[in-house]
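Now for a specimen:

…
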Amino acid sequence: MSNRPLASAGRLVPLLRAGLIAGIVIAGALYPLAAVTGLGAKATAHAGEQKADILRTALPAETSYVYAPDGRTVLTMFYEEYRRYTKLSDMSPNIQQAIVAAEDSRFYQHRGVDPKGAARAFVANSRSGGVSQGASTLTMQFVRMTLRDSAKTPKEVQEATQQTSLRKVKEMRMAMDVEKELTKEQILERYLNSAYFGHRAYGIYAAAQIFFSKTPATLTPVEAATLAGLVKSPSEYDPASSDQKDATGRRNYVLDRMAQLGYLSPDAANAAKAEPIRLKLTDPPNDCASLPATYQTWGFACDYLKNWWSAQPAFGENRLERMDKLRRGGYRIVLSIDPKIQAAAEKNVGAKENTGSPFANGIVVAEPGTGRIKAMAVNRNYSLDVSENGPSSNPEASPKVKANYPNTVAPLLGGGDLPGYQAGSTFKMFPMLAALNAGMPLSTAYDSPYRYRSEVYDGWAPSNASGAMTGRQTMWSGFGKSVNTYFVQLEEKVGADAAVRLAEQLGLRWRTDVDREQASPTKAKKWGAFTLGVSDATPLEMANAYAAIAADGRYCEAMPVQSISQRDGTPATYTTAGGIEREVAKPRCRQVVSADAARAATDAARCPTGDTPAKGSCGGWSTADSVRGTVGRPVAGKTGTTDSTRSAWFVGYTPELAAASFIADPDNPFNAVGDGQSQIPIAAVANTLRDGLKGQPTRQFTPPSDAIVG
């Protein structure tokens, strides 16, 4: 026997560094798999123990789908790697055979490591002085992909992919362990769902969609061979490039291998090789800016979904983990938006027509008793492209700062980090509700002068909007006419801090330094101006707060979804502080005020709309008396304007729906909308409630008890 080594040391080291296996080098020439079962096993036993569970259970990152309420219409997707897990039974045999032919023709004969293939690769690479053949089986490749995809740190990613002999030996050992745990069919299924095919296509479902706009079940031999050929080098063999020469050559190689293995007849392989590669490319949508044109106006609801998701502990300990789950967890998310109500909301705020104004007119509709959001619309285009937007209306902004119209992705309707807009007298609901819940009756009356000086609030002296409001008022007339001096006195009695705390229980949050300071325990008692709505709020918050009143005082957290399913089809769940497992998409409700207090507040809130309360008198006139006639059914609500009408609001509700609309300049809160536009939110809510409830039976509000009427 010749003593001449198979390869010189100078040539062997580069081969090992390129990822060929030190143990297999010996295996091919001296003793089969010694490096794996002997010294290699000793070096990798610990790693094998650590990774065994991962390889048995780990699933690759999968795309999350967002659906319209019908559960069928895909609105968009969220992904880092576009992938949809597909069972082997839902894949064409063509792709199964093509990938085996292309990557591991002895897949069904070996046990994770192929000694013959490794020896053949070693000899070929020794002769060529480089890497002309690989020795990785499909199982070894699956191990590598699984370790890469399950890596939690950059170091783990490097260890899973670095081209070293030690990594290769570990990979071999783990491949043999995997073959003891999984069947060949399970390994092939997971491999085909993990492999990268180029063009952001991870897994065979994405590859079939992106390159051929079809499912894996319908792939032809030509298409399957094209895709299988991509795994080796997705960029080099990309059939979507201008020159398909390399892609065609690689495809033909796979077809020949399929014929050699008996998967295709020689004639069928030759006929397939004669066909050109015919692509039907698809660019899968990703994130909220990719909604189809038909649903582009739903972008703000989609954006709210993202912000809501990022705040849910069920999906991780922090925002980063939660968004990673959204993009990798393979969830099936069905939005709560109602197409009929959304269409009504869009029409009534001019979401598609009136996008050229600095004044944003938006509306949010919530469902009492569930907190589910049924509509979110604003006169803006949800778009990342602000190149055609003009300069900001804020004089303090740089001339280079773009305005928020016509295009924006800012969360103008709530759910994000923006503070919102001063909501004016819509806040009068909170001290009134606090007073009613504390046992004060609707008939509570105060002499309400044009101007009132408050000793409780250190001499603060607000006035009414009109001298016609002067006189003795009750909750009905005070609310219907929006009498400031009545509500300051009512707030004095119940306590401004009680009103602030109640607003918090109804979902309001303080997002500016001033609001946070005023709402603090040390300041809230003196926050007399709270009842006049000097705090910022969002239409999302206000619609949901008033929805709680419509639901007899039962507050439900605002929620953008009607269902969330995990990749296995089961509902996504979380564990409560009490250890109870609950569905994430199930309404989260709690009783905030008594049902009688809420019904009494509703009775007073019928006065601003021109409706007739069940028990008392509205005092002859109101601030939005056209609403009842427009809606055509029992309706309650409240108007709100700020100093100099910088913003204007209306929040209205029926037993079925609550809606909040505003008009303001998001870029410059000092850019007053003016009295002439203060009716716009009133009309938006009234018309949306009318259109959204069209065809539904009329429901009545439950009257308050005589005890709380007084």
